[in-house]
Amino acid sequence: MSEKQEEKSVPAALPAAVKRKVGGLGRGLNALIEGSYEKKSDRLGLVPHPVNSVGLIPLGHIEANPYQPRTHFDQDALQELAESIKVQGIIQPVTVRQTGTNAYQLISGERRLQASKLAGLDTIPAYIRKADDQQMLEMALIENIQRENLNAIEIALSYQRLVSECNLKQEELGDRVGKNRSTVTNYLRLLKLPPDIQIGLRDTAISMGHARALISVDNPEQQLELFHRIVAEELSVRRVEQLVRAGLNPATKPDDADAKKQQDATPQVPVAELRRTERHLTERFGSRVMVKPGPQGRGEIKIAFDSVEDMQRILHILQPA
């Protein structure tokens, strides 16, 4: 073979299609999907996509999900996701339904959609599926429930919407979200608590265990009194359960017969009276005072002080005139 023939057998440059695929490495699904399109109009999502397929869709053609249960998204977390998308691309496609020619509605993937806009993307890989309004709501709620950072009230509200708006029974709801019926029931019961307690649970002032103990108290006023005591005294869940069993709720009876007998023989001080006593003593000593009842009429009174001087001041008040 001559030197000229050898020169002709070596390609001068890679084909354009090959270069496009090589350059697409590190850009997530966008690169893989782009490589399957031959026309620019296809890459811009200007052709209809069949149902149950994945295609690149312009961000401007996707409207927000009107059934999205979450309206607040952490902006710092969105910016971090946007920076990741700039480097890695979209790893998981969003899910949409087609509502018209080149018009789509988001089903799931709100954070990815918003972050893609922040990252300056023109298109986003999307899985196109068929869904009616009820299915839209159900899918959005279930995806919302499966998020790890939801608080108990957000989960309870999502369960309630699935029951009331999607006409699901609690057994069906448990199957859909992968929970047993008792778990679903416990969450739904949280919504019967007074609004202040729900807010406390939402803001992690109390735990799910505290809230479940409070549900066992029938009187809303007693629930609120015990809730404020939990926050003020940082009571453990076990201590709250003990207080409830001790008679804060007359309708609640201990399972153990001996415990019930001891409860009947122990005079109980109403919670309202305890709070009044605490307020009176706090004003008297100018420091926080906590009154803790115990079994058989016993208990303890704690007076807090901030320094040695403060302790001396309290001791002086305690001295007889």
Short description:
Pfam families: HTH_ParB (PF17762), ParB_C (PF23552), ParB_N (PF02195). This protein is α/β, with parallel strands linked by helices and 321 residues long.
Write structural notes for this entry.
- Helix 5 packs across helix 6, helix 7 packs antiparallel against helix 8 and helix 8 crosses helix 10.
- Among the domains are: 107 residues, Conserved hypothetical protein from pyrococcus furiosus pfu- 392566-001, ParB domain, CATH 3.90.1530; 61 residues, Orthogonal Bundle (Arc Repressor Mutant, subunit A), CATH 1.10.10; 55 residues, no CATH class.
- The chain is elongated and about 90 Å long.
- Strand 3 and strand 4 form a beta hairpin.
- It has a five-stranded mixed sheet.
- It has 17 helices and seven strands.
- By secondary structure, it is α/β, with parallel strands linked by helices.
Topology:
Elements (H helix, E strand, L loop, with lengths): L2 H7 L6 H8 L4 H7 L5 H4 L9 E6 L3 E2 L11 H14 L5 E7 L2 E6 L1 H9 L4 E6 L4 H13 L6 H14 L4 H8 L3 H9 L5 H8 L5 H8 L4 H14 L3 H12 L8 H9 L5 H15 L3 E5 L5 E5 L4 H11 L3
Parallel strand pairs: 2-4, 3-5
Antiparallel strand pairs: 1-5, 3-4, 6-7
Helix pairs in contact: 5-6, 7-8, 8-10, 9-10, 12-14
